[in-house]
Amino acid sequence: AGSRVRHFWFPNVLGCTHTPLYTENRERRIALCHFTLSTIRCQTKVQNKSFRISNMYNMLFFFIWLSSRSPFLEFSQFAAYELYGKEEVPAGGILTGIGRVSGVECVIVANDATVKGGTYFPVTVKKHLRAQEIAQQNHLPCIYLVDSGGANLPRQAEVFPDRDHFGRIFYNQARLSSEGIAQIAVVMGSCTAGGAYVPAMADESIIVRKQGTIFLGGPPLVKAATGEEVSAEDLGGADLHLDSVLQVTIEPSEAPLFPADELYGIVGDNLKRNFDVREVIARIVDGSKFDEFKAFYGDTLVTGFSRIFGYPVGIIGNNGVLFSESAKKGTHFIELCCQRNIPLIFLQNITGFMVGREYEAGGIAKDGAKMVTAVACANVPKITVIIGGSYGAGNYGMCGRAYSPRFLYMWPNSRISVMGGEQAATVLATITKDQRAREGKEFTAEQEAAMKKPIVERFEEEGSPYFSSARLWDDGIIDPTDTRLVLGLSLSAALNAPTKKTRFGVFRM
After folding, report:
1. Which InterPro entries does the record match to this protein (predicted)?
2. Residue 115's pLDDT band (boundaries 50, 70, 90)?
3. What one-character-per-residue DSSP string does 316-355 give?
4. Which one of 45, 195, 474, 494 is at 20 to 30 Å from 272 when CA atoms are compared?
């Protein structure tokens, strides 16, 4: 049950790319990724259906590209997708992500004034707060590209008064600054009311001359309140200088032996049909080299050490339902990674923990709890990618959102739910049937089918990655072929923050 190095050039891996199922899966995955990309593009249209040209959006990428020619890791592109009915709020009206400025990794938060004047909807606030959380967890400087009219007034009750509403943004700015995390604002347009506090509370601010303005009350409000007539340029604006900060270098890396686009054919539509997670690992890690830990024990959980863009990582991936042996193996592996300060990568494709009399008697509950405890207590950077299903307690054991991964991404084919729709419908139908039986009433097959249908449909809708991403339950839907790059950027960002020593709770024996 010891560890051994596994290189992925043996025949059974190569053979998987020459089957009809592989070809069918590949075509479907490519089509799904095209749908995802086209949906993101549709998010960037205004109501007259012509493409919006966002100065902020273009300026952001020009800014990042000119600075270091490095990629930009964008979060939650599907924020607000179909969330507000006919009212379009593309990407939540705000762009967030991680980019390099003069070689320094920064969290970028950019208002899009072409969406409701850059005002904050509830999901805009949530997305902004999530970006600040990422900055705090990974000790990354924040750069705010500001062009905002403040809170969206028609939705003020959902935006203004509560703990995690608009005011929390400025609270976070003050707290982040106190922790030594730089807060830099670049005023790109009109910053009114609450929008003015972002640059006002920043460590340093820059205003684009004859374009950016800062004021609590704009010219119309000033005239109404005092009778004074003043231009926007005369009312607010200032120039500050921005100094460069610490540069971070990236270690050299080794490309995988297999092309990333083969991932399209490896993963199918039917999540009930398992695929070997090693096939995924082989296409995202350096040199396709994987030092597998306890390869012949608890084999429904694959664990091992590898590197991504030169960064050492511990990888935990699902190859089926979790048994007691799998959970104990996962717990042991997490302990090792915490002891050695190695970041953890979770590749989720999990239906949950095994159920049944034999397994309950064998201690599946307490063994599963060991793994959940280990995940919860691990202080090394944790990054989760949902590559298939994410159901029930399996979501917890594999570092779902509630277990504070630094980043969480989803593939377009993924699903997330407390359980599958068919299972949920069967459980609820059984409860109803038993209740009717106790009351001496009949529960026909037709009634059962009629009851199940809307439940299955609801779970199907709510389990979609697009439903999840619209509500910021993840940090974005990514193309499977971008997984290696996204993980590399996320690791590079996560390793800026010092790692606290892990102290585990009590493990039930």
Report:
1. AcCoA_carboxyl_beta, ClpP/crotonase-like_dom_sf, COA_CT_C, COA_CT_N, MCCB/AccD1-like
2. confident
3. EEESSSB-HHHHHHHHHHHHHHHHHT--EEEEEEE--B--
4. 474
Rg (CA), the chain: 25
| Alpha-carbon distances, residue 357 vs 361, 366, 484 (angstroms) | 6, 14, 40
Cα 57–chain centre separation? 20
**Residue 326, both tokens:** 């799998």
User: What is the amino acid identity at position 315?
Assistant: I
On whether the CB atoms of residues 110 and 56 are closer than 8 A, the answer is yes
Q: Above 80 in pLDDT, residue 305?
A: yes
**Distance between CA atoms of residues 200 and 196, nearest Å:** 6
The per-residue b/e assignment along 295-318, b for 16 or more CB within 10 angstroms, e otherwise, is: beebebbbbbbbbbbebbbbbbbb
Distance CA 295, CA 286 (A): 20
Element (H, E) at 215: strand 213-215
Task: Give the per-residue pLDDT at 423.
Answer: 74
pTM of the entire predicted model: 0.71
Rounded CA gap, 438 and 257, in Å? 62
pLDDT value of position 38: 64
Residue 243 has pLDDT above 70, yes or no: no
